[in-house]
Write the structure tokens for this entry.
Amino acid sequence: MARRKFIAGNWKMNKTPDESRELAAGIRKALEGYDKADVAVCPPFVCLAAAGEALKGSNILLGAQNIYWEKSGAFTGEVSPGMLVASGCKAVIVGHSERRQFFGETDETVNKRLKAGLANKLKVIVCVGELLSERQTNVTEQVVKKQVEGGLAGITPAEMAEVTIAYEPVWAIGTGLTASPQQAQEVHAFIRALLRQKFGAGTADAVRIQYGGSVKADNAAKLLEQPDIDGALVGGASLVAGDFAQIVKAGG
């Protein structure tokens, strides 16, 4: 089944509103007339409005880097689904390894965030991936299985149409290390097999699985040609319009 590639840029804690407007405009210009992949950019919360202005009328989706599951209330520092939608968001990342590592995210809270995103008609990117120590002790599959099953608990096959999985080996994020295309493909195929068991072949074949972890313009094509790699969740390289556009175009 031919799945349309989906490339998302995670800007992390970078760029001011003015810089975000400029970067979004640069990405839009670099991808003008290109329509062979779905594209999203995920700026920091305070930059959503500025980036959204620059993307207005384009087919580049505006996404957020996190979401909280309550509609409103005494949750200092959190951002509700309604706030994201009102800011123009169409997509959101949940469970990024940095959220798990530094901010106490668990499979259970990832699942709550996923359900909140879906309930508000957002496309949700759910991140999974193992630490270097887990790769070295050959427990990658157990770790990824637990994260996939916990993160997707209670989700229906119909809801999975709005879900993208991002496999990001934690040891390859921001380190310059990248999983080889073969290593990445092995885990992507494993995740698709898990989805097949949980949701059936039709749903599993339709779900897009991105790779994340030091994706750059010079390694994107080799990763994206793998049969089960359907896109990329791009960190540092998404902060340079030309580099990000090159990665998008590497998919076809």
